[in-house]
Amino acid sequence: MSGHTRTGIDSPLVRSISATLSALPAYQSALADAPPAYTEVGIRHSYYTEDSLDASAVTFGSRSRYDIDVTQLWIEAPVGGSWSVALDVQNDAMSGASPWFVGVGLDGEPGVVMSGASIKDNRVEVGVTTRYFWADGNAGLAISHSDEDDYRALSFAFDASWNSDDNARTWTASASRSNDTVTPVKERIPVFIDEESLQTQSLYFGVSQILSRTQIVRIGLSYTMSEGYLTDPYKFADHRPEDHDRWTLSSGYRQFYSALDGALQVDYRLYSDSWGTDSHTLEVGWHQNLGRHVLAPYLRYYTQSEADFFSPIADREADYYADDYRLSSYGALTAGLRWTVQLGDWQIETQAERYQSDGEWGLFSGEEAPALVDFWRATVGLTWRFD
Asked: In order of start, what are the domains of the chain with their CATH numbers?
């Protein structure tokens, strides 16, 4: 969504370096447990494009993959002395082709059979969040509805944050639930279901701690459980378990360097699930203040093990099977740069990101999927704040 969710920390340290820390990813901190003093309106547009597959990896079909345009609009405003309300709207326009299944080429090697370049879809998501603030914390309730050609979702989320007496420590907890309905579009790819449903529940608990005048650390633990139809209806012979449990341990460290007027960002995430996939994510970034401008380069490494039922070639004897590259063993590198500039009540932001993946870059052994994705992503946004 818009990425301006608030959680509570109110201290001189956070106030003094908030311009640097708050813009860093995977770390959220409010400047105070009070409603915003201004109304914020923003728009952001992102363009995502996947590289075409190598000719050697395709047995049949188009080599082209997905292009996605994402437009986000939001408004957040104070209501009375203790409340705020936010409205978020997002539209995703997607077109392109995706892997249908993996077959064996004339050379005996696995090759991708593509769906064809005719897939088009549009998703609209609308969310409303209301938040209550008190002296030592805040709590929010969010409701969102997402609708696209073949998928509908209605979700509810509640979160709360509260501070220690000295405002040096903040605890955060949240719970959410989503009720989803799958109604596949039957066009070129054979689809064998009309409508299915699934439910997802998530719990999170985390704590952030001010270590010194220039250091903050955080750690969090989340658990997510999905039950229902989890198979991909557009992939040939795909059959997955009807339950999926996921555990995530996340941590982050921030240090502000006054002499450089910049901050170091280090984030680590450990993930494990009931399908046999484990993953590690490490991101390192630098956030540099340059007057009204801020530059933030970052580098992220990701690696995961394959799911228990992943195989490049269909196994008719197995209870479960998927050749989805997202369930394979691989490693990935992301390099990106964010730039923001403050012009009075207006803020302009841009971001460019390059993502590349390879089966040999991972820390886990396994069979390599021939359809791993590489992509570019670019973002531009404009925010206006007024009383």
From this structure: 12-386 (2.40.160.40)
